[in-house]
Amino acid sequence: MKRSIHLFILIAILALAITLTGCQSQDNQFSLVDSDLADYNLQALDYTLKSFELEFNQEVEEVQVSLLEGENTKTVKTIVEGKKVKLINLNLKPTISYQLVANVKSITGNELSSKTNFTTDRSYPQIKDPNKTLMQTFYWEMNKGEYRDKYPEEANLWNLLAKRADDLANVGITELWVPAANKAHEQQDEGYGTYDLWDLGEFDQVNTVRTKYGTREELQNAISNLHGEGIKVYYDAVFNHRIAAGYQNVEDSILASGEHVKTYTKFYPLKGRQKYYSKADQWKWDWHAFDGVDYAVDKGNMAPQNFEGKEWDNTFEKDYLLAADVDYQNQNVRDEMKEWGAWIINDIGFDGFRLDAVKHIDSDFIDEWLAYVQKNTAKDIFVVGEAWIENTMGLTFYLYGIDNSDYTVFDFPLRKTFENLRSGTMNMAALSRAGMVNKTGFKDRAVTFIDNHDTGRDHVEYKAPINIRKYQAYTYILMREHGLPMVYWKDYYQDGMKENINKLLKARRYFAYGPGHEVANNDTNTYSYVREGLADTPGTGLVMMISQGVSGDITTKRINSTQPNTEFYDITGNAEGRVVTDADGYGEFKVKNDEATGWSVWVPVE
Ligand SMILES: [Ca+2]
Ligand SMILES: [Ca+2]
Ligand SMILES: [Ca+2]
What we know:
Layout: H1 2-23, E1 32-35, E2 52-56, E3 60-69, E4 72-81, E5 84-88, E6 97-106, E7 111-119, E8 134-136, H2 145-150, H3 157-171, E9 175-177, E10 183-184, E11 194-196, H4 216-228, E12 232-237, E13 241-242, E14 251-254, E15 260-263, E16 290-296, E17 300-306, E18 324-326, H5 331-346, E19 352-355, H6 363-375, E20 382-385, H7 392-400, E21 407-410, H8 412-423, E22 446-448, H9 470-479, E23 484-488, H10 489-494, H11 498-510, E24 516-518, E25 526-531, E26 542-547, E27 554-560, E28 567-570, E29 578-580, E30 586-592, E31 599-604
Parallel strand pairs: 8-9, 8-23, 9-12, 12-19, 19-20, 20-21, 21-22, 22-23
Antiparallel strand pairs: 1-2, 2-5, 3-4, 3-6, 4-5, 6-7, 10-11, 13-18, 14-15, 16-17, 16-18, 24-25, 25-26, 26-31, 27-30, 28-29, 28-31
Pfam families: Alpha-amy_C_pro, Alpha-amylase
Enzyme class: hydrolase
GO molecular function: alpha-amylase activity; cation binding
């Protein structure tokens, strides 16, 4: 059945291509080169899609698109951008046959006419309170090297997020972790090389107004668009250190040894900003704001040294990580960072934070800061800490030291488990107890993920990406009852996973509800898991299966779906056929033993 669907898609795409080439004008150069429609099965197009994009090989001057539904014709709104035409506000209905008619004129006067027939898919359950899903919206190589040429739209991330807000909402993304928006030591820095936390691309400092991602105005416009689509936005807060002081502001400082040295610890003058926002007229970020450094201009590299009168802070792991280490025993620093946190929420409009390198920051201060921001803002603030600890015992101890039950952490122990999945050495049955997401008392304090901007790099600096069986890992985190799962931008947009991740997001958005059940017959090769569904929302619930196998055979397991006499199909399209459960809810569910297609998510047909 799957093969016939693939064949059908191929024929449909060919038909689309023939229709287009058949109707074009005398200049046979003008043609459609890419269509979002081609990504979907034209026989069962997802009716919840609100927009498609068509791309031509010449710039488009004029376009008219209409949608025929039986006798009715409706004009489709379009946005033309160079060679791309985006069709918006489609408002399709389930199980209807449509014809899309597009008449396009290029700026050189060439004309093209196309007709595409498609039928929309089944209807999905109406969910009152949809699942939450996070996306990390950047990666290390963004807007650099070959990526800059290949993805020119990423040259201004804030504008791109504003533009993609509706698409992201449409596939079920409910929150975004965006990169550090503050001025760093140079324009193209990722944001972790903090220069001034209050300059979000607003002032001419460090030879630039904008940051790598755009200006403050563009950022706030993006937040506004994202909020308009119901998406929350989280700031990547870098508290641990500051870097290089713009490479220009050297000052005299005194080490604990009494030695006078020159260091990059002078984070002023605040060109343009002056005393805007912070109390920069009352105190300044000079060496007194820091605990120590591992470099002096006149000495070169050295072992991390305290400044005179300083001691390292009360941190979970060693206080010193890199650059100029911030002193959280300094009252001015504490006060300013608390005010800054409230400003980011109240004035800029963010909804929460990701805390960078948090195990190297004073734990008492994190408690104090979070309590202050929660108290001084009207929002229910979300906070996730990057405490890079790869065993559940260690991460649990870390959380015991943070006195705030709203505080969540990235599930690094779960990611560590996925390294075994990658290598094919995993005992799949052990996935029932892997990571913080399965640790009693901490299950909902876990942000589950597979790769991020540190692990998902082309050139490995920390950990190699989970580049094998990544869909199996996504299936696991996206169907789970607990944890907030995260999708990584680079997987989605750069590494060609968008189409298959969208299917998993669909399963999460409409079916992954109700209590989760471990099955009794997991083994070293296959892991299955059941969501019972919502009692008051028929058609919800699922059976997910992931395989580590490579034989190409099908594994069949008798599983209690908890839903008697119900017909299921695999929404991912990887497994063929239907499964009908018996009067006790049991059915023979399947998954293929294959790296590239070894996952299935069985959902009720209606
Ligand atoms: Ca530190
Ligand atoms: Ca200190
Ligand atoms: Ca410190």
